[in-house]
Amino acid sequence: MRIGIVAGEASGDLLGAGLIKAIRKHYPHAVFEGIAGPQMIEAGARSLFPMERLSVMGFSEVFGRLRELLGIRRQLARRFIGDPPDVFIGIDAPDFTLGLERRLHQAGIKTVHYVSPSVWAWRQRRVKKIVKSTDLMLTLFPFEAEFYREHRMPVHFVGHPLADIIPLQPDQAAARQALGLPATGEVLALLPGSRSTELNHLAATFIDTARWLKLQRPDLQIVVPLANAERRAQFQAILAAALAPPPLMLVDGRAREVMAAADVVLLASGTASLEAMLLKRPMVVAYRMAPFSYWLAKRLLKVSSVSLPNLLADDILVPELLQDEATPDQLGQAVLYYLENPHAAAEVMERFKEIHRELRQGASQQAARAVLELIGR
Questions:
Q1: What is the average pLDDT across 147-172?
Q2: Domain with 342 in it: what CATH number?
Q3: Burial of 154 per CB tally in 10 Å (0-12, 13-18, 19+)
Q4: Could you tell me the residue range of the domain that residue 51 belongs to?
Q5: Cα radius of gyration rounded to whole Å, the chain
Q6: pTM confidence score
């Protein structure tokens, strides 16, 4: 068996590695080739191009590399059409993989897309392109599968790999010990984002919120995990410019460990909210962007919530304070509510556990089974 496969970034590399291992349990000699990251290569994939060439963000960077990206896609299309694989799997990176899937699909090659684009949230007309490009969509979340069924698109909800990895009952005491935090006492995890633009929009507000909270709860320990050296330097510069900055414990990486150690998490909207939910941590979600971007997003978005816990629950489980509502006073009050109302925090944590069980499907095994069924294996 020969399988074409393309991943464009680290999260896709993780998914691809799990899928390759799961398929090889059934077909040990299956050949995988395309574009792979280090984990996929370790699992046995052959990468024809470096995955980093696909890992681009932002209009200007993509535009500057457009000729190269289109050239890579053309070469892959020629290779796979000239020597067809049993199936092609595009993992996330929809701007690159869906175009390739469409060419292969038109040539009679079975195609799978793993990880739905956020077509359910905005630019819903993209689903027509997906239907013409892909034989099977594999989704991480159940509400995504419902969207595709409504559009008569073959779909399989496989669950989320993080739900398989993170235990149903995280060990808060072990996380605190590993970080050198006291076993007792209140801890707040502060996650202002992993991208430069997110820190520019949120870091100062989060620092002011931390100062507000320290006035209410002087013994509150506040821990800030930072994604890399660049984000740490950026955060430290913003902290140094703050008026009467509060004492904060900065940590390099280890965001999951910091969230597990916390009583409450204050974070920028994004995938961190999924991790916080799986870790059963009460959270407050915030986001800010440039005023015009926010104006445009409000008109394009087709969903009433932006955080994954609320989308998955189809309910307002966690407070979302966006743009002008993301003030130190309002953010601080929302965090304080959880600290002062342990019963409310416990109710939210129980709902998180229910969602965790729903997402814990054995994602790699489910995805492998769906792919093999598609090609009659």
A1: 94
A2: 3.40.50.2000
A3: middle
A4: 2-159+361-374
A5: 22
A6: 0.85
Residue 147 located in a structural domain = yes
**What local confidence, expressed as pLDDT, does residue 103 receive?**
96
Q: Is the pLDDT of residue 221 over 80?
A: yes
Spatial contact of 92 and 116, defined as CB atoms under 8 Å apart: no
Do residue 150 and residue 194 come from a single domain? Answer: no
Q: How does pLDDT run across 292-301, given as a tens digit for each residue?
A: 766 666 666 6
**Structural domains in the chain (count):** 2
Whole-number Å distance between alpha carbons of 103 and 195: 33
Same domain for 114 and 191, yes or no, is no
Same domain, 177 and 244: yes
- Say how far apart CA 214 and CA 211 lie, in whole Å: 5
* Residue at 261 is within a domain: yes
Q: Say yes or no: 260 and 148 in one domain.
A: no
Contact, 168 vs 356, CB < 8 A?
yes
Q: Region 198-209: what's the mean pLDDT?
A: 94
* Tokens encoding 145: 């599968």
CA distances from 126 to 11, 122, 130, 259, 335 (A): 22, 9, 6, 35, 38
Q: Using CA atoms, how far apart are residues 92 and 137, in angstroms rounded to an integer?
A: 11
Q: For residue 58, what pLDDT band results from cuts at 50, 70 and 90?
A: very low
Q: Which of 334 and 193 is assigned the larger pLDDT? A: 334
Please tell me whether residues 268 and 217 are part of one structural domain: yes
First to last CA, the chain: 10
| Residue 167, domain member (yes or no) | no
- Structure token pair of residue 208: 């002011």
